[in-house]
Write a structure and sequence with these properties.
Length: about 625
C-alpha cells in the first residue's frame, strides 16, 4: 500500500494519500498506509469517523464518496477543525462496502482549497477497488496456507478426509480418506459430477448440490456445513457424512473451495435408535392391548438391531419346560414358522426363557450350545437362515419371565454391544407395558365383580321394599354421592300409636288449619297426609303441582302449602311463585330428599326458606308445620 499511495498521490499532485481499515463498530478506523508530499504531515493513526462530521458518516456508510472542496466553507466549523488539525482543507474519501458493511476507506487530501474533477474521482474509485482485491488476495493466500497446515495436523490426528475444489477450472482433489467415504479406492479419479454428485444418496443429492452453489455464490457466500448420505460407488455401502468447508473469493468470485469430511454413520445410528426408542416407549406406555404391545416392540427391535427378522415368544413354560407361544413376528411372514414346532427349553433358548442372561452370538452355528438337541441337532430344513443371533429376556417387575425377543440375521457378526444395550432397554419398556396391561385387566375384572355384587344387593333390597308395600327413591348430588331412601308403610300397632299421641300433644293441630300436601310420589304423599290428620289438621292431597293450582284457583286455599321441591310437571318453587300471585301471604313449607346446601347452592330455593329434609320423623313434621303456621 505504500507504493500505491505514493504513486497515486504524486500522479494527482495532492498533499496526502491514505488507506484505512474500518473496525467492527463501523465508526473507528486505522490509517495503516499513507503518503504525504513534502511539507505535509503523515496522518497514520486511529480515528473516529463521527469526529469528521455528519456528512462523512452519512455518505460513507451509504457507500457514497465524501467530496469536499473547502471544508472551511462547506461543513460546520467544529467538523472542519478535525480536518484542519491534520492539515486537510480539500478531500475525497472513497468507501469500500462489502456485504453491507463499511470495510475500508481510501482518500486523497489537499491542504489547499481544491475543486475535484470527475477524472480524479474515477481514478480514486478504480484504485480503491484494485487495492482491496490485492489485499484480500494476499490475505486469502495467507489464510489458505494456514488452513492447509491446520487441516494436515487435524487429519493426521483423526480420521478426517479433505477435499479441494477449483470452481474455475472444475478440478476436484480428494485425499484417500475422502475417497473411501464415497466407496472409492485411493487411485480413483474424481470429478464433481462423476464422483461427488454420483456418490450422493438420491434423496440428498439436490440438497447437497444446492449447498455447494450457495457457498460459491458471489456477494452472498455462506458457510458450507452439511450432513448427507453417500452410496459407495464401488462397495455400495450407505454412509452418513458430515462435511464442512469454506470458499475463498477474489474480486467477488470464488477461486477455491476447501473443506473436510468425517464419517458420522455411528452417531446417526445412535440418534435414530434414541428417537425410535422414545417413540416406542411412548407408544407402548399408552397401549393396554398385549398383542399390539409385543408387535410394536418386535417391529422396533428389528429396526434398532439391524436384524432381518425378529420374533416375540410368550413364555408359558410347563412342568417339562418345553412350551412357548409365538406372539409376534416382524420381517418375515408367519408362514415361516407354521411348519415347525415352537422352541423348546434347549441349551440355546434356556437363558432367555429362564431370564438368566442375554444370548448374543456372531455365528450361532459355531456356538458350543448349538446342535445338542435330538432329533434335528440344529435348525430344521427350510428354517429361516440364522447366523447372527440375539435373544433378550423380557422380565416383569415381579421377576416373572414374560417371554423373550429373538432377532436373527443371515450374515455373521451383525449384533454388537450397542444393539444388545438397545434391546435391553426395549425389553424393559415391553415388560412395563405388559405389566400395566395385566393390571388394567385385573382392575376391569374386579370392577365388574363389584358392580355385579352391588346390583345383586340393591335388587335384593328393592324386592324386599316392594313386597312390603314401600318404595325406593334415589337422590344423586355432584360432589356428595348417591343416596337411596327407602319408604316403608307405617305400622299402626304397638308403640307407634302412643308416640303419635305424645307428638300431637306437644305440637297440636287444629281442624280449621288446612294443609295442602303436594307430592308426586304416592306412598310418600299418603304417609305425610295421614300423619298430619292424626296430628289434628285438615289435609288436601295433591298428586302434582298442576292439580294444586287448579284447586287453589277454585277456592281451596290452604293455611299451609307443604310441597316437594323436585317434581316432573314443575318444581315446587315454580308452584309457590304462581300460587303467591293469587295469595301473597300464603305460608309455605318445602320438603326434598336433597340436602339444604345442594338446593340453596344450585338456586332452587332462596336462602332462609323453610325446608324439611326427607326422610323425616312424625315429631320433625309436627314441629316444623307448627312453627311455620305460628309465624306471624
Amino acid at each position: 500500500m505504500q507504493i500505491t499511495t505514493r504513486l497515486l498521490g504524486e500522479h494527482l499532485g495532492v498533499s496526502i494519500c491514505a488507506y484505512a481499515d474500518m473496525e467492527q463498530d463501523q465508526d473507528h478506523f486505522t490509517i495503516r498506509g499513507d503518503w504525504s508530499a513534502p511539507g505535509s504531515p503523515s496522518i497514520r493513526g486511529y480515528y473516529s469517523l463521527a469526529d469528521f462530521g455528519r456528512l462523512a458518516v452519512t455518505n460513507l456508510s451509504a457507500n457514497k464518496p465524501l467530496i469536499i472542496n473547502n471544508n472551511l466553507e462547506e461543513i460546520a466549523p467544529e467538523e472542519a477543525k478535525t480536518f484542519q488539525d491534520i492539515g486537510i482543507t480539500a478531500t475525497i474519501c472513497m468507501p469500500l462496502v462489502k456485504q453491507g458493511r463499511l470495510t475500508a476507506l481510501m482518500a486523497i487530501h489537499d491542504k489547499q482549497r481544491r475543486v475535484w474533477s470527475q477524472r480524479e474521482l474515477s481514478l480514486l474509485t478504480e484504485v480503491t477497488e484494485r487495492s482491496w482485491a490485492h489485499i484480500e488476495r494476499v490475505r486469502s493466500e495467507q489464510a489458505a496456507r494456514a488452513s492447509e497446515e491446520r487441516l494436515r495436523l487435524a487429519t493426521d490426528a483423526a480420521a478426517i478426509g479433505t477435499w479441494d475444489y477449483d470452481p474455475i477450472s472444475g478440478v476436484l482433489r480428494w485425499d484417500d480418506r475422502c475417497k473411501a467415504l464415497f466407496g472409492l479406492p485411493p487411485d480413483a479419479e474424481v470429478t464433481y459430477e462423476s464422483a461427488f454428485l454420483a456418490g450422493l444418496h438420491p434423496e440428498d443429492r439436490a440438497r447437497a448440490d444446492e449447498a455447494v452453489r450457495q457457498s460459491l455464490a458471489p456477494g452472498t457466500p455462506s458457510r458450507y456445513d452439511i450432513e448427507y448420505r453417500t452410496i459407495g460407488l464401488r462397495d455400495g455401502k450407505e454412509r452418513w457424512i458430515a462435511a464442512t468447508g469454506e470458499a475463498l473469493f477474489q474480486s467477488g468470485r470464488a477461486i477455491r473451495f476447501i473443506g473436510t469430511v468425517v464419517d458420522v454413520t455411528a452417531r446417526k445410528r445412535v440418534e435414530h435408535q434414541l428417537q425410535l426408542m422414545n417413540a416406542t416407549a411412548a407408544a407402548v406406555a399408552a397401549e393396554l392391548d398385549v398383542e399390539r404391545i409385543v408387535q410394536t416392540v418386535t417391529d422396533a427391535g428389528v429396526v434398532l438391531s439391524g436384524a432381518q427378522f425378529g420374533a416375540f415368544f410368550y413364555n408359558v413354560i410347563d412342568d417339562k419346560g418345553d412350551s412357548y407361544v409365538l406372539y409376534a413376528l416382524s420381517g418375515a411372514p408367519r408362514s415361516a414358522f407354521e411348519n415347525f414346532p415352537m422352541p423348546r427349553n434347549t441349551a440355546v433358548f434356556e437363558p432367555t426363557f429362564r431370564g438368566t442372561s442375554v444370548v448374543r452370538s456372531d455365528d450361532i452355528l459355531t456356538d458350543p450350545r448349538y446342535g445338542k438337541n435330538w432329533p434335528r441337532k440344529g435348525m430344521p430344513e427350510g428354517h429361516l437362515p440364522v447366523r447372527s443371533y440375539l435373544a433378550v429376556p423380557v422380565v416383569s417387575r415381579s421377576g416373572e419371565v414374560l417371554g423373550g425377543l429373538f432377532l436373527g440375521h443371515s450374515e455373521t457378526g451383525v449384533f454388537a454391544e450397542q444393539q444388545e444395550a438397545a434391546l435391553l432397554g426395549l425389553a424393559g419398556h415391553a415388560a412395563t407395558a405388559i405389566d400395566n396391561s395385566r393390571l388394567f385387566k385385573a382392575l376391569q375384572t374386579l370392577n365388574g365383580t363389584l358392580e355385579q355384587r352391588v346390583k345383586d344387593e340393591v335388587a335384593e333390597v328393592y324386592g324386599f321394599v316392594r313386597q312390603s308395600g314401600g318404595s325406593v327413591k334415589i337422590y344423586s348430588e355432584r360432589g356428595v354421592g348417591t343416596t337411596l331412601k327407602i319408604y316403608l308403610p307405617r305400622s299402626h300397632h304397638g308403640v307407634l300409636d302412643s308416640q303419635i299421641e305424645v307428638v300431637a300433644g306437644e305440637h297440636p293441630g287444629c281442624a280449621d288449619e288446612i294443609i295442602m300436601v303436594v307430592e308426586d310420589e304416592d306412598r310418600v304423599r299418603l304417609t305425610a297426609a295421614e300423619a298430619l290428620r292424626e296430628l289434628g289438621y285438615s289435609v288436601l292431597e295433591m298428586q302434582g303441582p298442576r292439580e294444586a293450582l287448579v284447586a287453589v284457583e277454585r277456592g281451596q286455599v290452604p293455611s299451609l302449602l307443604f310441597t316437594d321441591v323436585v317434581m316432573p310437571e314443575m318444581s315446587g318453587r315454580e308452584l309457590v311463585d304462581q300460587v303467591k300471585t293469587m295469595h301473597p301471604s300464603l305460608k309455605v313449607l318445602y320438603t326434598t330428599g336433597y340436602t339444604r346446601n345442594a338446593i340453596v347452592h344450585n338456586g332452587t330455593l332462596d336462602f332462609g326458606t323453610e325446608l324439611l329434609t326427607k326422610p323425616y320423623t312424625i315429631d320433625e313434621l309436627a314441629e316444623k308445620v307448627r312453627k311455620v303456621l305460628d309465624r306471624k
